[in-house]
Known about the structure:
This protein is an alpha/beta fold. It has a single domain (6-291), classed as Glycoside hydrolase/deacetylase (TIM Barrel), CATH 3.20.20. Helix content is 39%, strand content 14%. The chain has helices at residues 19-22, 32-55, 66-71, 73-81, 101-119, 137-143, 205-208, 223-240, 252-255, 258-271, 282-290, and strands at 6-14, 61-64, 85-88, 125-126, 148-149, 160-163, 190-195, 243-250, 277-279. Strands 1, 2, 3, 8 and 9 form a 5-stranded parallel β-sheet that branches. Helix 2 packs parallel to helix 4. The longest helix has 24 residues, at 32-55. It is globular, with a radius of gyration of 19 Å. The two termini are 38 Å apart. 41% of the residues are buried. The model has no long low-confidence stretch (mean pLDDT 97).
Amino acid sequence: MTGKKRVLIGYGIDVDAVSNWINTRNGQKADATNVSRGVFGATVGVDRLLKLFDKYQMKCTWFAPAHSIESFPKQLAKVRDAGHEIGLHGYTHEWFSALSGQQQRAVMAKSISVITSFTGKRPRGFTGPHWTSTPELVTILEEAGIEYDHTFMHHDCQMYYVPDGSATWTETDLSKDAEEWMKPMTALKPSKVVEVPANWHLDDWPPFQFVPTQPNTQGYVDPHVIEKLWKEQFDFFYREYDTFVFPITIHPQVSGKPQVILMHERFIEYVNSHEGVEWMTMSQMVDEFKSGKFDGVTVEGGVEL
């Protein structure tokens, strides 16, 4: 593409702190050493990231489980008072895919209440813990008046109105006749919620966070490898699109480590060497999209049955 470039880029910081470690889902006791990693993130990690963003004069979106706000109010007050956005991320980093409809609504209501009380304004955005979701999630977001989501992956560099969750599909069940599952997905229909797309390949957790019980986490990847991965994604989008979004997801207990902070500095400076780059919060991205100042896409798929 050869037009004038405009790139909306920003960090989404998941302040999981202790919450993701105590979200054992079955009441199993949490490991105290893992909890200490969460404390590091909420204290040392938050302070280091605030210093990083201040250095580059950036405002970001911090998705904070309500448990983190209630457990580390002084630290989250630093985020709030620095002018960053605070968005929804569950109460105790609950995987929404494991919750009933009633539980999802209860967690959403409590989290909205905590953030509204803490910041003085209702949160505008949500990101699903562990990026899990349910068919009713988007409806719950609409009911709660949430304007945007950062959970789904229908696109990787364009905003869109996320499908409303009404589409259905049939999972394979080998205990049944094949005819039972050989059916197409039904049509996707847009909701009123804007999607700022999530992307596992722009997330610091899998490569940099060592968790012995989770085979999808590595912990010892050379930051220069991930820096190259991020740069190559940016380079492709910059070559192929005149306008695109580039949301990055990080965690203070991961990106607060020295080697990862240095990677972020190098990446920020690389991105800033390009014309048309604007660092902003996800709410600001959504404002540009909803006002018609920034293009997006329409997600299509499925068939009418």
